[in-house]
Design goal:
Blueprint lengths: L14 E2 L8 E2 L17 E2 L5 E3 L15 H36 L5 H54 L5 H29 L4 E10 L9 E8 L2 E9 L5 E3 L3 E4 L7 E8 L5 E9 L10 E6 L7 E9 L9 H20 L7 H18 L4
Parallel strand pairs: 3-8, 4-9
Antiparallel strand pairs: 1-2, 5-9, 5-13, 6-7, 6-10, 7-8, 10-11, 12-13
Helix pairs in contact: 1-2, 1-4, 2-3, 2-4
Length: 373
């Protein structure tokens, strides 16, 4: 997948300053719109790196002062598409497990069927929770649309009373009442917008690495700084031999925002006081509401010679205790392995030799019990 970059004004004067490979561009302005392509470079990370979580209360965005209805419409459409895809993926997984249960009831053991049934019930609970979450988002958006229509009506009334002659007392009172209503509906829209933003879930962003073809050389060091509203993520990496990369951070969790865009700044660290800004871009995030993990690529410089690869997994909830589509697929593959193992030695009727052996053992036990042997 490609991560779209917001179009920005471009600075005409750039500085070329690089001794290795070919030149890197030092520009402090955001880059223009580009078409991007996915890739997967080889990356190794330092041991002991953990997931960083950036969704504490201090990073929670306060209610906006001015609502953004057009932007909210775009985010809502993308969110509904992502939730629909999530439901479809888990519905397919549920049908696959149900088919396995029907096909394996005859020649499988009880423990295997119990494991399958447990997974089916877990996915069914997750689907019910997902449907309730989608209905809650629909209710919030419907309430937002009602407040928007009331706000538009109050705005038209204020405009009409302002253009007329405000000489009479009734006209002044009506203008004050319309202005009060307009302010109240605006505050309601801001609160609903903030509440809807809190229902967007999480973006789990994993660093895949930089790819630059001849742009990357062994020994180069880079710093990547990501800004998403009040949330920050800074990580440093080094290019080693055999195109391997070592980064001091592995993963970050961002809370999705309605009006903010993801800003990415890549800096090459040459010496103590000589840092070269390779690129500074601002990316759209509403396309990241997807059911399955996706690898996105971002062109860092104008020529596209340096790309940043990120693996983004969207979780529609703010907790880690519910199964994701990837985990369900992994469980299904494990069940298939167990299914094939059980089919290799199914429980069947003992042979005649085994029956004779069991009878002799039973008779010997009876003789020992009565003291005859």
């Amino acid at each position: 997948m490609s991560l779209s970059v917001r179009p920005q004004r471009r600075v005409l004067v750039t500085k070329i300053n690089r001794s290795q490979s070919f030149a890197g561009v030092n520009s402090s302005a955001d880059r223009p719109f580009r078409n991007l392509s996915p890739f997967t470079p080889t990356v190794s990370r330092k041991t002991g790196s953990r997931v960083s979580r950036m969704f504490s209360m201090s990073h929670k965005s306060p209610p906006p002062k001015v609502p953004q209805p057009n932007r909210l419409d775009e985010v809502y459409e993308a969110l509904k598409k992502g939730l629909t895809a999530y439901l479809e993926v888990h519905q397919l997984e549920l049908e696959k497990l149900s088919t396995q249960i029907r096909e394996s009831k005859r020649n499988s053991r009880l423990g295997f069927l119990y494991d399958l049934d447990k997974q089916v019930k877990s996915i069914e609970r997750f689907l019910r929770r997902l449907e309730f979450h989608a209905s809650k988002i629909d209710e919030l958006y419907e309430a937002y649309c009602i407040q928007r229509r009331l706000r538009d009506g109050a705005h038209n009334m204020v405009k009409a009373y302002s253009t007329g002659s405000p000489g009479s007392r009734e006209a002044r009172e009506s203008l004050a009442e319309a202005s009060k209503g307009y302010k109240e509906y605006t505050e309601n829209m801001c609160l609903l917008e903030n509440e809807l933003e809190s229902q967007l879930g999480e973006f789990h962003v994993r660093m895949k690495g930089l790819a630059g073809f001849a742009r990357l050389c062994a020994g180069d060091q880079y710093e990547i700084f990501m800004k998403y509203g009040r949330q920050r993520w800074k990580l440093r990496g080094r290019i080693e031999v055999n195109s391997k990369q070592v980064w001091d951070s592995e993963e970050m969790v961002f809370l999705p925002l309605v009006t903010e865009f993801l800003s990415i700044k890549v800096t090459e660290l040459k010496s103590l006081a000589n840092h070269v800004v390779v690129g500074n871009v601002s990316c759209e995030t509403k396309d990241l509401f997807a059911a399955l993990p996706q690898v996105v690529a971002v062109d860092i410089n104008d020529l596209g010679t340096l790309k940043l690869s990120l693996e983004v997994t969207w979780n529609p909830f703010d907790k880690d205790d519910q199964p994701s589509a990837a985990s369900s697929v992994n469980k299904a593959s494990t069940v298939n392995k167990r299914f094939s193992t059980y089919n290799q030695s199914p429980p069947d009727t003992p042979s005649l030799r085994e029956q004779a052996f069991y009878v002799s053992v039973h008779q010997a036990g009876l003789l020992r019990r009565h003291g005859q042997w």
